[in-house]
Amino acid sequence: MKLTESLQNINKIPELRQRILYTLLLLIIYRIGSHITLPGVDASAISGASQTHASDLFGLFDLFVGGAFARASIFSLGIMPYISSAIIVQLLGAVTPYFQKLQKEGEEGRQKINQYTRYGTLLVASLQAWGVSVSLASPASFGRVVVPDPGFFFMFSTVLILTASTLFIMWLGEKITESGIGNGISLIIMIGILAGFPQSLIAEIQSVSLGSKNWIVEAVILALMVVIVAAVVVLTVGTRRIPVQHAKRVVGRKMYGGGTQYIPMRVNTAGVMPIIFAQSIMFLPSTFLSFFPESEIMQNVANVFAYDSWWYAVMFGSMIVFFTYFYTAIAFNPKEVADTMRRQGGFIPGVRPGKSTADFIDNILTRITLPGAISLAFIAVLPTFLTKFANVTPGFAQFFGGTSLLIIVGVGLDTLQQIESHLLMRHYDGFMKSGKVRGRR
Predict the structure, then answer these.
(1) Does the model's pTM come out above 0.85?
(2) What is the CATH number of the domain that holds 262?
(3) What's a Pfam family in this record (predicted)?
(4) Residue 9 — very low, low, confident or very high, per pLDDT cuts 50/70/90?
């Protein structure tokens, strides 16, 4: 009843209805493109060959692009080159004075940074497209011939199509963010992940029906799934509120201030970005190693970066912890918060304004970020342990742990919050009338 009422409220707001329909239309276009096979590739051969890579990094990359990689479609690279480029630009912003200056120039600086990110996307997509074309043309990569007529024309056309398609997906994401609902780039990643859920669920059910798994064990695994999903939601919406009091001010005949407000500091301030950043970095070695499909040494190195290896889990978890702190430092600046409080006449009880306030906020932020970062890393590497010890299929394991669940929950809550904000601004109840959606009081 509550869901029906909320959907009716959405339909009563023309702007919100148009934004949602516009978003759905662009996402449908993205899904259609993921089913168009590259010219010169044998679709049936690539489909059969991809099954042998379902549990390695090939299968993980394919998960993020909604099966487009396994089909060798024109959208095989997805939006990951854009994410990789954004990581590089943000790292430059932390160490390069020029990019630090751009970050402080407001809207004009943001536009320049976005432009550099687009240029970087073009470069990264070209390199990854070259790696994909080399891998497709080599029978050793898949154990069979997937390109009947490899040659210069195939290599050139594949690089051109994959690069142009990545830029088109980037444009779709920006248009969704601008004229749709939610963050377009994140929604594209999420819809690609969700596209593989029905097939993974069917495979898990078939394994139980065929007797390869005990249904009691499967029930325990599903119960664990519910617990993990709840834990991820709590981690995503969890906050530490810092009380802020405002001194009373008399302006004319009226008195202002004197009330108490709160600074909501999230346990997971960085959101899903550390996961996406770390995952993009982990894709780079496999891209480089794909240039040498017939080299035994390179393939031995590739085994170190295999998705189900312990080294992969350790490196992946470590990078998540690093990027959590890194992105939190970019997204939340205690000094700016302290300066804003001082200008507005606010103060934290028992703490001096200025530097002491900034140090106090930074200390709390550091302490609450540590358990958040460790929790993110644990959930991200959980599918590796479940695949090894619980005999869970790799595809299904991604949906109750790991990157997939974190992205789905984070992006879903962000999108839900934006829809609820539109409803509340027009005095309608949102989806979570009795609950607590992030950012709602």
Answers:
(1) no
(2) 1.10.3370.10
(3) SecY
(4) confident
